[in-house]
Amino acid sequence: MNPERCDRRINTADAAPPRLTIAHMYTRADAITDRLLVEVPPSLIRLHRLPWPVAVTAQAWADVIAWPTAPQRHESEEGRLFDVLVMAKTSIELRQSQMDYPLTIWRVPPAKPAHPRRPVRLVLSLHEGDHGETVATIAHRPRPSRWWLPHLYAAAGTVVVMALGLALSVLINH
Description:
2 domains, disordered N terminus, elongated, five-stranded mixed sheet, alpha+beta, single chain, 42% helix
C-alpha cells in the first residue's frame, strides 16, 4: 500500500459529507391510507381532551377494538374505542411529561364470555408527525427483553463465590 495514498485518505476527513437526497419517505398519512394506522376521529379526541392527533395500529385495532360483538352483549366498536381513549387519558394524567404512556385493556373474548379475560398491553407513544407536529400512536407494547437474566444469574453466582472466597480468606488470616 502506498503511504502517500493513505495520508490523502486521512486528510479528507474534514471534507464536507456528500449531500443526500431522500428518494421516498413513508409518512403517517401513507400508513393511514394503507390502513396500517386507523385514525381516531377528531370529535373523540376533543371529547377526551387529548392535545394531539391519535391513531391506532391496525394490529391493536383488530385485537382490542374491532373484534365482532356477540348479539347478547351491548358493545360496539365506538364503545371499545371510547374505553381505550379513557385508559389512554388516565395514563397520561398519571404520568406527566413522558413520551410513552403504558395502558392495559382487559379483553373478554366476544364469542365465549365464559372464557377468562386477558390483558392486552398497549402503549400510547408521542412522536413527530409528517409536518413536525406532535402526534400519538397507540400500539401493542413490546415485550420486555430477557437477555439480561443469564447475566444476572452469572453475576449473582460470581458475587456468592467472591463472598465465600472473602470469608475464607478472613478466616484463614485470623
